[in-house]
Amino acid sequence: MTVALAPGVVVGRSEPMRGATELVIHHPPSACALRPGQFFQLAVGAPHTILRRPYSAAWAEPASGRIGFIFNVVGAGSAWLANRHEGHEVDLLGPLGKGFELDGGVPAIVVAGGLGVAVFPGVVQALLARGRHATVLLGARTADQLLPSDRFVGAEVKVATDDGTAGHHGSVVDLIREGSVDLFACGPTPMLRALMQTARRIELPLSSIQVALETPMGCGVGTCLGCAAPRADGGYLLTCQDGPCLRADRIDWNKMTDAFHG
Amino acid sequence: MADRLDLEVDLGRGLRLRSPVMVASGTFGYGFDAPLVDRSALGAIVTKGTTPRPREGNAPTRIAETPSGMLNAIGLQNPGSERVAREYAPQWATWDVPVIVNVAGDSVADYVEVARSLDGVSGVAGLELNISCPNVANGLQFGLDPRLAGDLTAAVRRATRLPLIIKLTPNVTDIVAVGRAVEAAGADAVSAINTFVGMAIDVRQRRPILSRGSGGVSGPAIKPLALHAVWQLSAELGIPVIGLGGIMTTSDALEFLLAGAVAVQLGTVNYVRPQSAREVHDGIAAYLHEHEFDDLRALPIRGARVTANA
After folding, report:
1. What are A's interface residues with B at a Cβ cutoff of 8 A?
2. Residue-range definition of the domain harbouring residue B257
3. B216-243: per-residue pLDDT in tens?
4. Among residues A42, A62, A96, which one ends one of the domains?
5. Structural domain span for residue A176
6. Among A81, B140, B144, B209, whose Cα sits 20 to 30 Å from the Cα of A189?
7. Gap between the Cα atoms of A53 and A220, Å rounded
8. Which residues contact B215 (CB under 8 A, 6 or more apart)?
9. Among A78, A224, A255, the residue to mutate for chain B (most B Cβ within 10 A)
10. What is the arithmetic mean of pLDDT over A102-115?
11. Is residue B66 in a domain?
């Protein structure tokens, strides 16, 4: 494991979809070491905050040493990050945890709910680079909160919105069809729970679904034991060490709680 | 220049640390998971609280950030003392830093069992008794009552030859009374303080954020409270006091050493800046050098003009 702890420099900042911020940070060691699905602990300097904030990298470009993060402002820490501009330093700890297992012979289906899409640009690129057929199913509340489909060039993109302003009127989970596929999912816990129900209905084994878990997190490296998630066979696993990307059959989805965004 | 400075600390019963900077229980696992930490900067590692049998810990949500601090209610998730002795201790024996096992339990028998199982185990340099875990049923009772705390200390004292540190809870009216009781019962040192009991509520979902409702508050929010506890204890006890509670910087650590602590533990800061132990160690050395002090014994500021009830 190559884990770096060093400041990177913000080299780009944009609003990829309404309300979201994409920060591009120049940090060559991280851009080279990242495996799609891994996360970083970003230090924030907002008054009275303490803990680093865990964010999956959206993508990395080893040649330019750049790495992208897409996030919403949900509290003081993310608000501070969203106010970083070109030239500002951001302290990164990572890459951390386990990424997705990307090899396989069957088509790949990516299911992204809301900000869950933030982990997938690099994942889809890596799937396509392996010669896999990739379909991206994007869900959001409304059309302008969808990450534009040109972020997934080479993949087939289908969308769903809660209010029907784009694509299917309803849940992104409704877009899943029967078939022998590998599924990659990230999104709010209720969406993931619905996904597991659909998978059981269409007899897709949960072991063929990989999820990027989101839980509250303290250290990000396995010492604080704060990011526990309920294991299917009892007890808890740690999102930071056993995940964040793991097979869906390892989680007890009935006991999985919604992450609190403070 | 700093090489000639003596940063050694004597905690008694043969436990000597080359540095006054320790890492606090629960913030460093069993020493294996923390990346990028320079162990040569550490005086000692204190492990996660260890019980006789494995514990799964509390249901999520276990942690939450609070202003200048955090709450935790992990619930003593640990692999049990047998596995610690069998798998971890042999690795610690090869390290160049002493490892002190933090011990927790629900009964005197639990503590005695862990102490017995680790007595004479190579790689275990000492025990720190967590008599004040706020996050499990009955976890606080020993630390709240001087008589119970003394009885527990005496029982563990009889069960082990290892150096024995008692970690005190601040959730009491008179922490000095508990400190005196454990000193009289044979403690070699005390560490102060454990977390304060607190809580946070999610106003959108209208429920406590932590699954247990309450948890322990740590971080800079509690530093002035911790410092005063250390100030009081070091005036009244004849055994070493190890200070902890919200230390983030060299200056914070120096405050505790000036208040009379012989060593400090870094806790929450390990989550934020894994390199902080090295920074604080070097910062203390630079401070001694700058003030032309030969060793840490020159630091405590208490003199005749300062009264114990300050």
Report:
1. 1, 3, 5, 43, 48-52, 93, 215-230, 234-236, 241, 255, 257, 260, 262
2. 2-58+74-200+217-298
3. 999 999 999 999 999 999 999 999 999 9
4. A96
5. 108-250
6. A81
7. 9
8. B62, B63, B64, B71, B72, B73, B134, B135, B195, B197, B198, B199
9. A224
10. 97
11. no
